[in-house]
Amino acid sequence: MGRVWASWALLLGVGAADWIAWKGNESQGAPSTGAWRRVPRSGRFEAFAWEGPNPKQAVNGYRYFFKDATKYTLGNATNATELVVWQPFPENDRDSAVGANIRAALFNLYHEQLDKFKVTLHNMGWDGVAKNSICTSNAPCPNVILLGSSQLSDRVVADRVKPLNHFMEEYLRANLARMQDDFPGVADYQYFYEGKWMGIPFLSDVRLIAFNKTTLFNLNISIPPPYNTRRQEWTWQDLLDNACEATERLNCTAGLLANSDFDEDFKFFTLMVQSGGGSLYQQEGEGQDQSLRCSINSPVGVNVLKNFWKPIITRKCMMGHNGGPFWAGVSPPSEALKDLLQMKSLNVAHPPNMTSFSNYNYTDPNRPQGHIDAYVWSSGFDESMTVGDCRKQWWPIPYSKWSPQCKPGRAQMLMGNLSECKQAMLEYEMDTLIFERGICELLTCPTKEATVSLLPGTAWAVKASKRQVFSTWCTEVLYANMPQNHTFLGGSGLIIPKKAGDRHNCHRLDVTEDKICLREKEGWKIILELSDTDKPFMKQANLLKQQSVPPPRLSLAEAIQARSKLWYPVVTAMKNGIPSQYPNTPIPESADIEEMKPVRLAMLETIYGNVSEETSLGHACEILDDLVRPCNAPRWETDVRCLNPFDGLAGCEAGSHLDSDQLGIIRCRPCESGTYRPDRSVDQTCEPCPVGRYAAKRGSGNCSVCPLGLVAQSPGQVACFNCSAGQTPECSARCRECPKGTYQEGFQCVDCPLGYTSPMKSPNETYCFPKASLIWLNFLLVLDVCALLLLLPSFFGKPVAVQDIYLDEGKLVLKTWGSHQVHRWAPLPVKIRLTHTHHYLLEEKNVFRVKWRDPDELYLLQDQGEHISKDINTSWGRMRILPRCSLWASATCGIPSLIVLVFLLVILALYLYWAILNGIGEAKHLPWSLSIALLGALGVLVVHYWVWRNHVLSTPLRRRQGSFKQRLLKANPNPQPTERGPDRAITAEQIGELFEYFRDFIRRRDMHYVTNNLVLPFTKPYHLSYAEVAGPSRASWFVSHCWSNAFEDFFHSLQNMAQGKACFDWRKVTFWICSFSNNQFKVQEELGDGDPLKSSFYLALQSPECHGTAMVLDNDCVPLQRSWCLFELLQTRYVAPKLKSGYEGLLLCTPNGVLQWGNAHVDTVVRLAEKVGEIRLENAEASRVEDKIMIDACVIETVPGGFAEVNKFAKECIKTVLDAANGSFQVRVQELMQRLDREGSPVAPLAPRLLGRNTFRSQQHYSGVIKTQHLQDHLLPPFRTKVHGPNEREVWLPGSDR
């Protein structure tokens, strides 16, 4: 026999690479050994190219199976990666199609890659796929597991199922379609947990009801839908009534056949409860508070038990397929039933074993296979029941009209019985068979009539003949819609297992280096191959089992429904199917419910034990509630509800804590990092690691001690850390802060370098900074050096601006602009040097002793310490303490500079002392400090110099000069040189402007002051005369004056004279004045280089426009004692009259008026008369000896008679002036006397005499104006006068009309 199979294998092209069957560890060989069986209906399997040229006859692991094999292997290459698949179905005729198609899919994937992979398919059974350990260190981790949908929740709770969302997303991207869109609606309930797809549906499990239409028709019982057009729906009560009616009228075994194997009674019962609006459990609460409570003891459940189950069993309307009772061991009563009925109390943790009551026997020797009398409860579509006996469908047909229409399918075969012939017909996809005397002939008939024509032509012949014709055209069995359109729907799905706690996610399916990703990738590839609707594996695994079911794909189910109307109720049932636990969340204890069978307990108690429905269902609910109750924490070590689904042991393992306790299952969560749990427990929290210890990973059973140098300062640390910057570990539990002045280096605190300090918790040496004292010390050094450098100018005699030098109470006073920096208590004589004073006396002797008067005033002394009494005036220049005196004489901020110097040197010494103490710190910063100090000092010196210079240049006089200079520039924007002589005159207005603008500076000072302090500064930029700068004019009068006269008197003298001479505006009268008209920077040239006749004086006097000389006299008539004035007087007498006509000669001017006009003071006239006798030109003085010698020589050479003649002329001129003054005085007195006479006051006539001479002159009156040659206002204080000219004056009394 084995040789025959081998020959077939060779002929069909099946090579050595084929599946090997195993029982335990014993190899059973390949299909070619002949020990394998052909898979029922495998002739209907789709063919593959790798099966050979005649695939339907191939002998391979696709079309053959080894009965009761425990596993199959494919390939055995060394070092090949093993791929493992678990499936639950046993290897028998009933379900072998499932394993065969799984093997075909695996072979199709890997038969060309057996050098890389070896494949193992384990037949684990239902308990194995649900409960065997997987993916642990001691347990395998298959690539794919096929397990029941009710078993999936247990694996999910144990965290042993890989979520498939990311794989399905990859599927969507690759196919542009969602895989789950083709799943039945119930798949969301069965395989979708908490937003994740945990499995892919592969097999369907549905419950159906079939009926015999002939029986129901003969009994006149209404046929159920969908074949009864008048009856769209029917109920469970209808099923009960119809089944019992058929049982009683036919006297058959039972009107409804159903077996109680596994948990069919539970599914049957819960389906009825669900149809009535009830459920197995009722959900209470949400989220963490969610709980389940058994609800089959509700009125709905009581009604189902009382009104359906109890009557249908007691009336024997429902029996097993074998013709016996629905449950085994009830008739006669078994010991198990007796013990059950005598049970006094129910132990919910260990209820009675109900497995012995299951009826697995489907064989009834008294009932031909495939025949049912009325109704049957089926777990699928059984094709064998749809093959009917055509004799029951026969009616006479005339032989002459008969023509064979059926086509032979296969040659006649020897068959032992009719059942084998039926199986052959179905396998070879024929619809009709003829069985006669052990010979089986298969045919394909197009119609029902064609099948009937195969029978003999007469009724007698049909009855007498041994020929039997069976065909699907002659079936009596149809499938009905489920009562109330509800049925149980379960199934099996494909999952990828994983290690508990593994969060590994393989997003890229092409990763091959990672073992986990490789396993998951190949698992997903296997799932895709098995569930691909374009390939036959899923379709054949569902349809070609003994109990066929629609594949769990909407597209495939609709195609089956369209192919045959017999499938319509089946597909409809699948669409309306619901799991037993619907609508509640699937609980992990589903397998326990199937094992304990609490509903069966309730049924048996009520039906056979006379226990009320409420009580029995209450007992069932106690068991069901116990399955989903919370863990009993005090007794967790022995409580089955406290078992950890991860490892099957009580409580959460070490390193985890109880996270939730719902639905009878505890869920443990690994301790978070930083916490631990040393032993198994059901505590809801983990303990934080104590200080000094840490737990780096989740799920720690203990905490580790921190390594050396690291600390965990607070409980619950996930790692040990270095101490914070600036801290060092004191032990593993705490850190010590580095104190001030230290820094962290490794695991210890180190002192900062000498002179440095640091804040608390300094992390490194860079945090060491100079001590605050050092910073202040260096800052003090900077200040000290800056102060020393600023003090140096004081010891070298820092110039101080002179604000004023004047005579006060007979003592010459120096007033400085700001402090003079001479301290009050100088122990030795103090000498200063004056520079740039513009005063010849101060320039000749520029070193003076001084005496402190005020902070800004000093007395100028002689060398012997006597006060200087000379009237020296200047507001210009600078003073400096002589360097040799500055040590004891200078002051800084009023403090002797020597004391300040000593103080600064002491600070410097202290700094050096502290620098030595602070060592490195100061050594590092000293260069910087000195650099900053020097740079700062230089900067301060620059700023000090800038401030000093601005201060020096901003004396009150300088500021006033600046503004006046702008006026000069406005009047004469571009000063130009002018020829020496008469063209350099200035107007009375220009003189007045200068005087009025600087009145508060000039005061009673003389021309020396004006020239040195005003004229020279204004003219220095141009090196011109003041007249050229202010705007020159042609001289109309030559002014002779003495520089020692007060400038105020000088101005008023010229003002009075100009007012008396001007016909229109006196301000326009022009004067040639030596100090204003001479270029003070070319004095020698102005003096004619030693020749008076070439001097500017002479040139101005000789000018044709010059009307005369105005000699300005003071009270002491000093001009008559000066050489230059007498020389000018000489020129006025001897030279000018000879060269021009209309020359007026000499006018003697005083601040009160012109003497010739009689408006001068009497005392001035008297003093002038006294000076006349003293006039001696040869005795006159000059500021410069050279000038006097030059003038004396000029007199001797040019004037006949020499000095005697000149002196005589001077006296005559003065006498003439005096005579005119006396006459004016007499006229005035006479006028007053006449006025008094007119007013009635007798006044004795006066004989006016002055200086022993008669000076009375005639007078004329007109228009109220007295015309006299002269009139002195000072002589008549009660009168008011106004001068109209040299001989005119208006006089009036105060308060009267003029």
Automatic annotation (TrEMBL):
The keyword Phosphoprotein does not apply. Keywords: Membrane, Signal, Transmembrane, Transmembrane helix. Residues 1-17 form the signal peptide. The keyword Signal applies. It holds the Pfam family Ephrin_rec_like. The chain crosses the membrane at residues 774-796, 887-914, 926-948. InterPro entries: Growth_fac_rcpt_cys_sf (IPR009030), SBP (IPR006059), Tyr-kin_ephrin_A/B_rcpt-like (IPR011641). Residues 666-700 form the Tyrosine-protein kinase ephrin type A/B receptor-like domain. CDD domains: TNFRSF. This is Tyrosine-protein kinase ephrin type A/B receptor-like domain-containing protein.
